[in-house]
Amino acid sequence: MTTELKILATLEKGKVSALLVRPDRATHLLVLGHGASSNMRSPMLQTIAERLAEQNIATFRYNFPYSEKGGGRNSAATCTATIRSAVAAAHGAAPDLPILAGGHSFSGRMTSTAASESPLENVTGLVFFSFPLHPAGEPATKRADHLADVTVPMLFLSGTRDALAALDLLQPVVKDLGKRATLHLLDTADHSFKVLKTKRQTVEDVFDEMARVTKDWANQPGRFRI
Questions:
Q1: Residues in Cβ contact with 93 at an 8 Å cutoff, skipping those fewer than 6 apart
Q2: Count of C-beta atoms within a 10 Å radius of residue 225
Q3: Residue 194 DSSP SS3
Q4: What is the pLDDT of residue 91?
């Protein structure tokens, strides 16, 4: 079942669009944000939501104010406030489901930033589709500093060719987070999940792989008792 909604992002910025996709046998609800230059209806996010639904994970997609109305990217404060609003609206729309939160690239980082400032109410874990550890060509780990203050489990789904997450930097970052963090590498995938089919070591579609891994991670016994 798909439901279109309007939610209040912030008092200053007003309402934004949201989209709830709930399969009949949903076990979890993932509040799913989009990349910096797209919106909740991007083909990539649509595909992620469809494949997650096949794994019985519902999704709650939403726009940031700038992606709803145009203009430059909102401040971090507005983005994190919008994420909190989306999480609250998602819980209201499906109060019976455990809530996960995250998103592709920018929205994943904004979600973890919000969670590091204070826990996201009712959120039991974070899922990052291509966490943007650094700008392309500028390897660094400063963007990960706040992750030490996140108190819920985190799943990193990252391509081995991601130009915004060099493996020699990302792997130690995740390791330092201890039991709270899980890294799953997507063979030959780049930041947008394009793969090298002739070199990829599995025939499984990369979006199917991400959905399957997310389901297995979310349903692992004891995962959310850390």
A1: 3, 5, 20, 60
A2: 6
A3: coil
A4: 97
Amino acid found at 103: G
Q: How far apart are CA 76 and CA 82, in angstroms?
A: 10
Give me the pLDDT at residue 222, please.
64
Cut 0.85: pTM above it: yes
Residue type, 60: F
DSSP 8-class letter at 153: -
Q: What is the pLDDT of residue 226?
A: 42
> Does the domain at residues 2-219 carry the CATH identifier 3.40.50.1820?
yes
The token pair that represents 131 in the structure block:
């966490």
Ordered DSSP codes for 16-72: EEEEEE--TT--EEEEEEPPTTS-TT-HHHHHHHHHHHHTTEEEEEE--HHHHH-SS
Token pair 């983005």 is at which residue? 79
156: β partners: 128, 183
